Amino acid sequence: MANLGDKEYFKGIGEIKFEGKDSDNPLAFKYYNPEQVVAGKTMREHFKFSIAYWHTFCGQGGDPFGPGTQNFEWDKASDPIQAAKDKADAAFEFISKMGFDYFCFHDYDLIQEASTFAESEKRLATITDYIKEKKAASGVKLLWGTANCFSNPRYMNGAATNPDFNVLSRAGGQVKLALDATMALDGENYVFWGGREGYMSLLNTDMGRELDHMGQFLTMARDYARAQGFKGNFFIEPKPMEPMKHQYDFDSATAIGFLKEYGLEKDFKINIEVNHATLAQHTFQHEIATAAKAGMLGSLDANRGDYQNGWDTDQFPNNIQETTEAMLVFLKAGGLQGGGVNFDAKIRRNSTDMEDVFLAHIGGADTFARALLTADKIITSSAYDDLRTKRYSSFDAGKGKDFEAGKLSLEDLYKVAQENGELELKSGKQELFENIINQYI
Predict the structure, then answer these.
(1) Is the pTM here over 0.85, yes or no?
(2) What does the Swiss-Prot or TrEMBL cofactor note state (predicted)?
(3) Less crowded by CB within 10 Å, the N or C end of the chain?
């Protein structure tokens, strides 16, 4: 297994392989078989599974009530350059052992931000060159990059929407460097998550001006990257709130409307996160359907929230019912446009063994794979598709077909209503649909 570093960080764990659902080996896939063809594509092609650099290699288990519990070997070097190289060695060892093809990063996941902008630029260039070598040696690819324009105190009032032009400019400089790193690493996409693009109070906020600034900022970023030859997609990742009271990319529908208002819809698509969907009082499948309807189903961040907690817990996906319903929408939409399934999830604070990181990702991949297999069986072997089609059969001929074709006026609908008189109720058969899901799971 290719590894530029001499040290093995995940000792005693070899390559994770598919062994099937009857296997008792916890360090093996039970459902995720990368080369198995489902609905015309291999699982590898459907999912393009990606490791989130920030949670998997940077998150140490800290919370508001205590420091981290995970003491990573790659965090021990005092020199930030060496620490970043050690982290990269560990990251590419882990990704290669998992058998996944991709990773994702924020700029300052890769290396610690320096005390000056100029020094940060040098550090980012140094680690980008090192990761180029790691990619070449391992074959691992970059699904997307992004900039962390939300953690540093300078962004407490936002980045692209900050009321101070100098802060907005600093964010622009940071995004340029993150785009440069993404392009240097042959990243297939670039993501914008507006973590603090919103407001804490409308009393001190000019929302219209801030939205215009964000539209202009994204336009400038797009134009810069395209001028450098970047051919990939740009993604918006919606989230309704947290850390801000209200964030401008509230959900998929809001983000799509924003992109269309500012003429960005041809270059941008939506990166949907499960936990963000539920925070917006939606389901994962609702957000997929919304993005797919607009032709903007770009990428997915796979995780889940805790049903008893109203915040972003970023747990690994394990709800087969929820994920199966999402995969039904996923398959009917024809899959993702450019992106993949990124495990934006973290092990729990009391999970402190190195193998726990493997177990979490294995479980997440198996959940998606099992859901995909189940959804495909439902579509191809059950009455599910026919039942849905029949619900709309009145639009497939006659006046209903004319309505969809735009051939009727409101007066025409009035005449149809007069002719029909009172109507019989038609059941939506929701319980039958639910039973079909349960039957095939």
Answers:
(1) yes
(2) Binds 2 magnesium ions per subunit.
(3) N
Question: Is 106 assigned a catalytic role?
Answer: yes
Give the active site residue among 106, 282, 286, 361: 106
The tens digit of pLDDT for each residue in 128-179 reads 999 999 999 999 999 999 999 999 999 999 999 999 999 999 999 999 999 9
Check residue 56 and report its DSSP letter: I
Domain 17-381 has CATH 3.40.960.10: no
List the catalytic residue out of 89, 101, 107, 109. 109
Residue 235 in contact with residue 146, Cβ under 8 Å? Answer: no
Is 237 a known ligand-binding residue?
yes
Give per-residue pLDDT as tens, 234-268: 999 999 999 999 999 999 999 999 999 999 999 99
- pLDDT exceeds 80 at position 4: no
Active site residue 109: yes
Concatenated DSSP letters of 239-265 = -S-SSSSEESS-SHHHHHHHHHHTT-T
- Supply the DSSP string of 25-67, one letter for each residue: -TTEESS--TT-EETTEEHHHHH--EEEHIIIII----BTTB-
